[in-house]
């Protein structure tokens, strides 16, 4: 594509060279330069793309976009140099044009909130697949284009990767894209310039206050998505921040509220909880339908209502939707049953916030007949405030606690554990075992008949990050090793 076409929506100052030249690729990483690449220099948290300009030109970049002034004496004359106010936003604008505005050709549903995003994307995929539609799903576990699984680092990819993935999804005839939109992504411009048809809000509770200055900053980031949604929003009415979104949006666009309270437009009642899932009624205006969901816990009724809300806005009949719900499958690493021993239930769950832990433990209380034994830890280099809160919740809602490590990252595991202990009281029912494998073994050894062991925090993750190293570690395999008698 011609450079002038790529930059036409960005307010660029041409510092040097021509904009009438052919560009083959856009990149922001110096390690991925090909012939005739447009390199966008980004000032990051660790590195500065501007420091790599010399190298990318040697490797084949023929145009660079900067947000800082650079020494033009070091740049060959035939390399075009463009200046913008913010290269992160310019990257999103340029990638959108380079990949031919892919989000205008696919129905994009963005999901935001502290907990429930991954679950909702997967549930929406199950529901829409049943209607015969092909989907892309972008999120924490991986990015999926139909059945193709593409590994990912971030929950929401950067703007360049997103535009590329979206254009691939369009090429592969996906009709919908269900994507998680993290508050980091919203704040860092990763979804700038995208077309969202719908936005879903799940909840806003303690997390990421290492990145956001306070709750208002966290909320403001999330709120951006609702301003962007073109066709409508589906919002949790039982959460105070959800009610703020509903209030702010209702005079601007269709805003469907869901929840258990009487004021929600889509409402669940007559609930019966079981270990395999739950049954309930969904009420919408004058209609009421019975529903059977194969995932246990009240939180999944919330997640399902969010999905149903989207389908209602899209014109599906409530009765028809309720029949599709039997096709919704449990989500990998979310209340996933992994025990091969019929006497003991062992569950994996990705709960890594106080609210998730509270909800998941409450869900287990709804069906458990014995004791609840929890194994959990907190991630390093992340929000420290949530640690004692998670400790308090774990102790309050379970009978035995094994406090262990999650992903310590660059922090000392013992110090993370110390933070968690601030919210707990010492007791015979509390064990500390920093080695996660040993912690899981300890819980399984202690579990008797009818007991439920919950291994929380890592869900689908098949690694542990210790220092800067990622080692293979899979809670599910550790449980299997225990039952197979491996040390
Ligand atoms: C804090 C944060 O969000 N960091 C993200 C950011 O990295 P960064 O700013 O550190 O990047 P950097 O390494 O300084 O590089 C700056 C620039 O120099 C370039 N560079 C860098 C090195 C080099 O050799 N050559 C080069 O050209 C890079 O391509 C980049 O353009 O940009 C990267 C590329 O897009 C992201 O992968 C990275 O996410 C890191 C891995 C991360 O852990 N992010 C977390 C906090 C996050 O975003 N989490 C949310 C989910 C949270 C949740 O829902 O629970 C998410 O959406 O993933
Ligand atoms: N609607 C919900 N409300 C509260 N907690 C939930 C809800 N849905 C799921 N959870 C809990 O949160 C955990 C994470 O769920 P999920 O992965 O769907 O959330 P997420 O928003 O994608 O998280 P992340 O921000 O890490 O990507 C689950 O394992 C479960 O314990
Ligand atoms: N997206 C979340 C995942 C946390 C998962 C948990 N296992 C941890 O490492 O804290 C984060 O990066 O904060
Ligand atoms: Mg997720």
UniProtKB/TrEMBL annotation:
Protein name: UDP-N-acetylmuramoyl-L-alanyl-D-glutamate--2,6-diaminopimelate ligase
Function text: Catalyzes the addition of meso-diaminopimelic acid to the nucleotide precursor UDP-N-acetylmuramoyl-L-alanyl-D-glutamate (UMAG) in the biosynthesis of bacterial cell-wall peptidoglycan.
Group of enzyme by EC: ligase
Gene: murE
All residue ranges annotated as the Mur ligase N-terminal catalytic domain in the record: 22-99
Source species of the chain: Fusibacter ferrireducens
Motif annotated as Meso-diaminopimelate recognition motif, chain positions: 406-409
Cofactor(s) the protein requires to work: Mg(2+)
Pfam family, one: Mur_ligase
């Amino acid at each position: 594509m011609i450079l002038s076409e790529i930059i036409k929506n960005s307010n660029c100052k041409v510092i040097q060279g021509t904009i009438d030249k052919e560009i083959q690729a856009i990149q922001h990483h110096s390690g991925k330069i090909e012939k005739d690449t447009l390199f966008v220099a980004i000032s990051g948290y660790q590195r500065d793309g501007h420091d790599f300009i010399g190298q990318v030109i040697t490797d084949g970049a023929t145009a660079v976009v900067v947000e800082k002034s650079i020494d033009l004496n070091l740049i060959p004359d035939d390399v075009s140099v463009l200046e913008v106010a913010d290269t992160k936003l310019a990257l999103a604008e340029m990638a959108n044009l380079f990949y031919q505005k892919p989000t205008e050709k696919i129905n994009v549903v963005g999901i935001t909130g502290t907990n429930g995003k991954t679950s909702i994307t997967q549930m929406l995929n199950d529901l829409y697949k049943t209607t015969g539609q092909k989907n892309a799903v972008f999120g924490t576990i991986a990015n999926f284009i139909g059945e193709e699984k593409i590994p990912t680092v971030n929950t929401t990819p950067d703007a360049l990767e997103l535009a590329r993935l979206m254009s691939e999804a369009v090429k592969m005839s996906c009709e919908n894209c269900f994507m998680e939109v993290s508050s980091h992504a919203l704040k860092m411009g990763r979804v700038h310039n995208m077309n969202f048809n719908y936005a879903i809000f799940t909840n806003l509770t303690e997390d990421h206050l290492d990145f956001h200055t306070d709750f208002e900053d966290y909320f403001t980031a999330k709120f951006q998505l609702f301003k962007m949604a073109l066709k409508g929003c589906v919002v949790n009415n039982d959460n105070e921040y959800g009610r703020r979104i509903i209030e702010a949006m209702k005079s601007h666009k269709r805003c469907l509220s869901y929840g258990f309270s009487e004021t929600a437009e889509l409402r669940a009642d007559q609930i019966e909880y079981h270990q395999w899932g739950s049954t309930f009624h969904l009420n919408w205006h004058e209609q009421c339908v019975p529903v059977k969901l194969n995932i246990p816990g009240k939180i999944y009724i919330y997640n399902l209502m969010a999905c149903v809300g989207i389908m209602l806005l899209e014109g599906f009949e409530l009765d028809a939707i309720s029949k599709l719900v039997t096709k919704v499958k449990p989500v990998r690493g979310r209340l996933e049953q992994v025990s091969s021993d019929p006497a003991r239930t062992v569950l994996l769950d990705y709960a890594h916030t106080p609210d998730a832990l509270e909800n998941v433990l409450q869900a287990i209380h709804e069906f458990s007949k014995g004791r609840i034994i929890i194994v959990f830890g907190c991630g390093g280099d992340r929000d420290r405030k949530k640690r004692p809160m998670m400790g308090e919740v774990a102790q309050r809602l379970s009978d035995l606690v094994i406090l262990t490590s999650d992903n310590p990252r660059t922090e000392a595991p013992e110090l993370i554990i110390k933070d968690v202990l601030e919210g707990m009281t010492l007791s015979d029912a509390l064990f500390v075992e920093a080695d996660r494998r040993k912690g899981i073994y300890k819980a399984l050894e202690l579990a008797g008949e009818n007991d439920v062991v919950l291994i929380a925090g890592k869900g689908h993750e098949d690694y542990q990050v210790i220092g800067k190293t990622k080692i293979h570690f899979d809670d599910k395999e550790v449980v299997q090793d225990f039952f197979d008698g491996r040390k």
